[in-house]
Amino acid sequence: MTQQPHYVNKLKRKLAQWISDEYRDLNGNHIQILDQPPSSLEFSRLLHIARPVIIKGFDIPATRKWTNEYLVQKMDDQQISVAITPNGRADAITRGADNELYFVEPQIEQMTIQNLVSKLVGQDAPSDIHYLQSQNGNLYSSDYFTDGNSVSEYEHLREDVPDEVPWCTEALGRRPDAVNLWIGEGKSTTSIHSDPYENIYTVVKGEKRFTLLPPSDGWCLKERFYPHAKFGRSSSSQPLEVIPSTDVPPVRWSSITDPSIPGSLPANIKPLHVCLKRGETLYLPAGWWHYVQQGKEMTIAINWWYDMEMRGVHWVFLNLLRNEEGLYIDSEDRESDPDS
């Protein structure tokens, strides 16, 4: 990326700060809570406003039925894909043995859900951190919605999870692009990022803690292009290490490890904080930045990703806030260490 003149960065920063302040002045710092799911018309209005909303009463069978014993019995010896890291930070910036910073994806290993549950509840406490976090539509993928022929590792659990959210489907006029299952515990975190999806996120067990920033605050998240790597082992008995990739392009990612740490964001940037408990659902609008933690106990969640509406000005505005030739700001701190 070409270094921009100082006066250009200064002008961009003033404009970006004005947008952040203006948005916050107009919208406040509160989270709307609905005591029951909205109608499709009501949700259309929420889509238009594009602010996070906590929704209660969105009842799915999984919330009532999914105990550890039930999951083990239903899944039996079915092999599932589980992400493994030494630090609980999959898809995050990590320093390698060569002292370089990389965007590192987790090691993926196959195991039964009984093995996973044993590791998460401490019966078989491992040194590495395990997190079921595949983001490819592990319950229902785009192929399922296209031709109905997708195969899932969680086929036996599909009867407990609807393949769409009716009021969201009707409001958007389309079915989801993917439905994902997440199972982990407090040692796993999701680094701050944004998605081009309208996200309906339901906690089935435990709790999830979200730190949220609107798209208008993305300028202060110190995005960089990092070389790609994966966690791996030189042999089965060796610990996980960062293994640089040779054929994957650099990944643009925030260098902010935890936006809730004092001093990691400008003083005028005030994140929203949401603690989502069992049976509660979060509507997370497309483009919102989110950092996700979970409670100490085993936590299960399901989310429905819907493609956002690309027509109109919203997508253009989101791109402006992140585009290299738009409001992207070269940081003076180009060697920021996410491990510090």
From TrEMBL:
SMART domains: JmjC
PANTHER family listed in its UniProt record: BIFUNCTIONAL PEPTIDASE AND (3S)-LYSYL HYDROXYLASE JMJD7, HYPOXIA-INDUCIBLE FACTOR 1 ALPHA INHIBITOR-RELATED
Pfam family, one: Cupin_8
Domain JmjC span(s) in chain numbering: 135-321
This protein's name: JmjC domain-containing protein
InterPro entries: Cupin_8 (IPR041667), JmjC_dom (IPR003347), RmlC-like_jellyroll (IPR014710)
Annotated source species: Agaricus bisporus var. burnettii
